[in-house]
Amino acid sequence: MAPRFAFRASKFRNVECKRLSTFDQLQVSPDGTVLAATSSSFAFAHQMDNGGAVQVKPLAQTGKEAPNTPPLVRAHPTGRITALSFSPFHEDLLLSAGDANAAVKLWKLPGSEPMTDDLVTPLASFQETQGIVAGIVPHPSADSVVATYSRPGSLKIYDLEAEKLSFEVAVEGSAVMSSAAWNWDGSAMVVATQDQAVRVLDPRVEQLSAPVIEAAHTGKRHLSVVWCGRTQHFVTCGSDRMQERELKLWDPRQLAKCVHRERLDAGSVGQLFPLYDADLDLLYVLGKGDRSSRLFEVDLARAPYVHALDHSVLGSMTLAATLLSKATCDTNDCEIARVLNLSASGSSVAGSCEVVSYRVPRKEATHTFQSDLYPDTLANAAAMTSSEWQQGRNAEPKLQAVQPTAKVAEDMSGSVFGRTSAPSGWGTPASSAGATTNGWQTSGWGQSLSSTASSNAPSKTASDVKTGWASSTRKWNEPEPTAQSAPPPPAQWNSTDTTASTAPPAPSSKSTETPEEIPAPVPAATVSDVSSPAGPTSITDVVELSDKAQRLGAKYGHKLKYLQGKEAPRNDVFHFGDKRVAFSTQASPVIAANATFWAAPIAGAGGPVLVEKLGATGKAQHRAAPVINGQKAEVSALAFNPFNDHVLATGSADSTIQLWSLKSDTSNGAGELTQTLSGHTKGLRSLQFNPTAADVLCSSSHDLSLRFWDIEAGQEKLRLDGKLDDITWNMAFSPDGALLATASRAKIVRVFDPRQSEQALVAMGCGYESNKPQFVTWADSSRLLTVGVNTRNETQVSFWDSRNLLEPLDVPVMVEPAASAASTTTPIPLYDASSHLLFLIGTGSRHIWSYEVDPVAATVQANLPFMIAGTDTIGGVALLPKTTCNIRDVELARLLVATPNVVQRVSFSLPRAEKLKEFFQDDVFGLVPKQEPSVTAAQWFMGETGAPVYESLRPDGTIDAQWQHDPLLTHFLACNLQVWWHCPRSPKTRHLCDPRRWISRRARGKKRRKSDRRLLSSLGSVLLRLSRLCIPRTILEPIHAHLKL
């Protein structure tokens, strides 16, 4: 008896579907389901000329389309486009069909450069006699052979090179063709008609074809057909008599009954688009009007022959779909396919096109090319000419090897965390099939270990090697790196001119926006392209990852991956008691804190604010809690003076700002009111102190103004009016206090130099399209970091050059999807610049996400997520100063989290071995600003700017971790210790130099300090290898004096 449940092993059983960046605000014509693509661009019907124009858009230009009209192919001005197709062997040749007279036109596109002017004159034109051309199907192996079918009409075969009609085949009766496809070698075609009949014919035999399948499907919906590659089978998609959509697998040798029938659904009525991957025998099915994509595997060795693998939701409704070539896939991520999903009603008013990626997750893919996922694929070369095919010859398509994607170079010299990504143009065609070098073996990790292996000779980084990799460390005003030149385009047929005629350029044809680019696969360079560097160019030259780390896909440099959060003990929690925190509904952190106090607005008459010492625990006393209340309406903004912990500024809905002097002993009251600042005409939105200038406060209000106050003098010194068109959600000073960045409710990010009253606006750019708030902060002295939500409710992090806000520095990084789903608004960002650590806190949830930020590479890496215990949700959060952290225990950050009932401390630490905690972890602890101003308020308002004063967090008695990791310093230290102890070096007493003998003895001695004994124990393994080195005393004595051991 056969088992009830049979297990089927498939390498695609864990396939994942992921949506990549999209092309938004496209002017897609909703009347035609036409979409065609090559390895570098795609074409669709534009709304111009009532759907008779074609827009060709590079795959690298994702993001929002410019509002003005782009250069178009004015293909069919008298009617809409009904069919589109690129030549499989010439990516610069485009075929279109349309017009009222059913014309088929051939267009010559610019080879390597994007279009700058409209194309109006085709390279060739063919006139149909009747009907509407419903499809264009190029021959899979013969050059210049194209089949077209019309409704109504016949099947026609054209020779593009000779510009003539070669064959014409009619169908019996009044049947109307709805779909057609070539078989694998192009010897026959399978044709489907609207009466659900299917015919298999050789178009070179010009005879009337009788149906070989009378009714492939019993329903009346549109019938689509696709050939299944080398399997010698084909698939039809239609519906049954109950109007349930289905697909069937057929064997042309036995057409009496289908091989397999797969039911899809019963609720949708749209046409199905079957897309077949002949390399892996995978079938992708999308439906017009649907919002989902299905994936099937065709395996004729095991019944039921068609196996469902994945059913994923798409971001927009499908109008047309096409499968991209393998050259666009990233082999480093085991990406097996990319599908374009065109929609006429996407995230924008007009339309959009999203990129759907399918990947097979494998751990070993980080260092090994998965050849079973990438067999030979179709080449961009014809196997025969059109005349050879017309004479009766058949040939299978030419194949070429899939070139592994070159690994991204990771340069450790420009970042604390040692990771920079290399953006490149997406969809670069694969190199020639003759290249035999494996890109996995030639690229390595691509890191220059300048912080690990010291060398006097300058090391040659990956960007210096001629491998075609792009460099991500270019400046904001430098041009994009140019890609390798493509082969010259083929000569035009029967034409002496090298370019197609173009129309005069329209004034608005050029775009004023710079399209964003997404990281994409780059062809691996061959051995002849790479010169041997003089020094180590790869991290594997110095530090070799273990086999386990390679299997798990470990990457050197992501140091904060295992950051762990921990809540304070129950006895260290402060309870509000009968006090109720007035949580804001405007995406505000609510709570403010410094190293001494914390403050939070509470419910009550006026604007009461509860102020407690940072270490306060227990429960708030009834009618005895330290509360300040001097305003007439609720408090909407709080800010502590960064140079005086006892000064608190509060902003209220009554349009006033109050300054309070807090008491050290809060038992007799929280503090006294010192000043009241008036000037705003509406309620306050946010307050921000200058990080370098003493007593400089900035305020934003609902009256659309920014005001700068000298709180020592109690006066308003600067005011920016008319610069904002909507309410400012939040703002942030640059590290040196010279510039101010703001994010408004109108989705606009601005950078101001407030002391330049006439030209205060430095840069301005659009943020996120969602109506949810967005946040802005400074990643470093020149780069901004913004957090927002796109139209798909996905939280994104973007990096910007503060001098140019037209486009982000790189593609916005989509963070954990749960960060958006768990919060009803945008997660609040808290950024620790010293450790490059970003926290995202979802208000109304219990989640805290942390990310490691690399501002140079404009990337973030997710750390371990954290969720607070209990059922209370987060209402407010504040990042405590770095000086409150336990540096010896590698505590990187402390957050003060407010819920409706309690205020608790959450610490985030990096797990390190106990023996490593003796060292100061300077790789994760950077310099922090000292609590002292650089300039006074008067100096700042006069135009002076002072750099912040920094200090190290290194505790007394600890040793820098670089001595442990740097082989050169460790070598000097070991030799210095030997001289210090005067170890004998004569051959007779050489055994006394063995550290296993004298290190253990000396480590137990009482004459040495405890820190010395710990240091000797940790260096025992190094001394074991270096004990017999003879170093001159003249070299070691200066080192000994420098180290002061």
Automatic annotation (TrEMBL):
Residues 384-393, 429-447 have a biased composition (Polar residues). GO terms for molecular function: actin binding. Gene3D superfamilies: YVTN repeat-like/Quinoprotein amine dehydrogenase. Residues 384-534 are annotated as: Disordered. Its main location: cytoplasm. Residues 4-63, 555-618 form the DUF1899 domain. WD repeats lie at residues 628-670, 677-719. Residues 448-462, 495-512 have a biased composition (Low complexity). It holds the Pfam family WD40. Signal peptide: none annotated. Belongs to the WD repeat coronin family. This is Coronin.
